[in-house]
């Protein structure tokens, strides 16, 4: 697919060519990689570590981190986007009805493909952009870059924490031994996340991605087949299952919007796209990746949501793995272990690349092909995973907290920031200069409004959910050994 706006664009000859954002952000005064603060350290490196320069040049490191092709980019995006969240879609269908569920799944998927396309256009036009915060810095200067960098880092660390928690639940279900302290499984989950995050390049990480994809397809397949057989064998068969094409009569705004946000978050892969594309050896090939990913996601989410909802009905659990029998749940969680930990670890890898890229911009350390580089890389990963583990265990309402941060951050990364990218960085001429500009202006305005709606309503629904959880006494204690708290 050829970009409608790229044909008349010229790339800046040097990163400094794009100094000024439309809102007056002077990129000359913003240190996206703290180069000024590291200049003295760079001089010290030259004096104190001559062997480092001999064995690891910046050119060699750059070559190492430019080996990602579009197929492996697709795999990295799949790892980031498709995890056990796919098995929360059936519960979303149950909340809003089959028709609305299918429309939301397909419609949001198409919008996600488009906003991801815009993100790629920004990377093509401004090749020096390496992470999401760099792109926002083009519009809003250093302040915008720092704020979004903090959002980016915090959200990905919270996602790692979420996978630590999911891993704990999986081990509890699989092993089925109530005498084991739940914290043991939590620590094991954190260690696995750390080990799987060690590959420093996304080209290397993509190898794990094939296992990840097979794992989620296997878990989904087992759940669909098992629930289908279960329903067929029940009295009355499939015709006795209670499901509806339309929303239930007692639907509330809170439950409806939580269902919508669950589907929205399932398509939230744009947050890491800049980071992945920084290693792409042929950047224009990104279009193949986002189309492949988008189509795969739409098919998986729509089929999974519709079939499991039709087989289980309004009582479908979230994740749907829990809707099968005891044995089926144990088997499905066992098959899902790779996707739980691989999809969780890629978040730590992305944050690690972001932090090291900022603080070691002009040092071979950033390429992790020296002893010093590996020490720094391991330290950054350990610090992240420990922080993620503490957050997951210390905050009793962590799952709901993740819902709040997703509403606050994913609404921007997936919708209103890409819309602003188009209006402020990509659009050529006035919004009404041509029919194409008018159509694209309307589409991006829609994305912007959707993003703000998710920001406001999603945050409200998540906060209300926390209040209700405390009122019902369903909030677990921090750092608890009780396995029942994770049920």
Describe the overall structure.
By secondary structure, this protein is mainly alpha-helical. α5 packs across α12 (286-312), α7 packs antiparallel against α13 (326-359) and α9 (202-233) packs antiparallel against α13. The radius of gyration is 23 Å and the shape is globular. The protein is built from 16 helices and no strands. Helices cover 69% and strands 0% of the residues.
Short description:
Keywords: Membrane, Transmembrane, Transmembrane helix. With 487 residues, the protein is mostly helical. It is 69% helix and 0% strand.
Largest sheet: none
CATH top level of the domain at 60-397?
Answer: Mainly Alpha
Roughly what is the average pLDDT, rounded to an integer? Answer: 88
Separation of the first and last Cα atoms: 46 Å
Helix content: 55-70%
Using only C-alpha atoms, the radius of gyration works out to: 23 Å
The proportion of strand residues reads: under 5%
- List the uncertain runs: 1-49
Give the CATH architecture of the domain at 60-397: Orthogonal Bundle
**Order of secondary-structure elements:** HHHHHHHHHHHHHHHH
Structural class: mainly alpha
- Might you state the CATH topology name of the domain at 60-397? Hydantoin permease
Shape: globular
Relevant CATH superfamily of the domain at 60-397? Hydantoin permease
* Number of distinct helices: 16
Total beta strands: 0
């Amino acid at each position: 697919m050829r970009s409608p706006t790229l044909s008349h664009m010229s790339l800046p000859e040097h990163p400094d060519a794009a100094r000024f954002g439309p809102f007056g952000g002077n990129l000359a005064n913003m240190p996206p990689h703290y180069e000024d603060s590291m200049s003295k350290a760079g001089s010290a490196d030259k004096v104190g570590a001559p062997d480092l320069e001999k064995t690891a040049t910046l050119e060699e490191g750059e070559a190492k981190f430019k080996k990602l092709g579009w197929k492996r980019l697709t795999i990295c995006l799949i790892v980031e986007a498709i995890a056990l969240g796919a098995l929360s879609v059936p519960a979303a269908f149950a909340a809003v009805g089959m028709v609305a569920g299918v429309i939301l799944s397909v419609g949001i998927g198409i919008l996600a493909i488009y906003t991801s396309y815009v993100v790629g256009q920004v990377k093509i036009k401004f090749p020096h952009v390496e992470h999401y915060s760099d792109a926002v810095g083009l519009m809003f200067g250093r302040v915008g870059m720092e704020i979004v960098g903090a959002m980016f880092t915090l959200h990905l660390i919270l996602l790692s924490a979420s996978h630590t928690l999911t891993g704990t639940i999986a081990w509890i279900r699989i092993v089925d031994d109530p005498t084991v302290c739940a914290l043991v499984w939590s620590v094991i989950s954190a260690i696995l996340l750390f080990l799987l995050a060690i590959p420093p390049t996304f080209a290397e990480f993509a190898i794990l991605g094939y296992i990840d994809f097979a794992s989620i397809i296997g878990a989904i397949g087992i759940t669909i087949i098992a629930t289908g057989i279960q329903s067929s064998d029940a009295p009355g068969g499939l015709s006795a299952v209670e499901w509806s094409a339309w929303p239930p009569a007692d639907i509330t705004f809170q439950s409806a919007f939580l269902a919508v946000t669950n589907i929205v978050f399932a398509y939230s892969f744009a947050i890491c796209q800049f980071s992945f594309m920084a290693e792409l050896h042929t950047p224009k090939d990104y279009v193949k990746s986002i189309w492949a990913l988008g189509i795969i996601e739409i098919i998986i989410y729509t089929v999974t949501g519709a079939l499991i909802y039709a087989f289980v009905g309004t009582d479908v659990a979230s994740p749907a793995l829990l809707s099968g029998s005891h044995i089926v749940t144990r088997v499905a969680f066992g098959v899902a272990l790779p996707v739980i930990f691989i999809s969780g670890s890629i978040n730590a890898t992305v944050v690690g690349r972001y932090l090291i890229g900022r603080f070691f911009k002009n040092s071979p350390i950033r390429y992790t092909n020296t002893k010093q580089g590996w020490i720094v890389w391991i330290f950054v990963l350990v610090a992240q995973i420990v922080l993620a583990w503490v957050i997951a265990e210390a905050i009793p309402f962590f799952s709901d907290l993740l819902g709040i941060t997703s509403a606050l951050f994913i609404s921007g990364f997936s919708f209103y920031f890409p819309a602003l990218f188009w209006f402020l960085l990509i659009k050529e001429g006035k919004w009404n200069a041509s029919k194409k500009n008018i159509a694209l202006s309307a589409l991006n305005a829609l994305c912007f409004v959707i993003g703000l709606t998710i920001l406001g309503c999603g945050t409200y629904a998540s906060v209300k959910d926390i209040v209700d959880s405390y009122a019902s006494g369903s909030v677990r204690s921090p750092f608890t050994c009780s396995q029942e708290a994770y049920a």
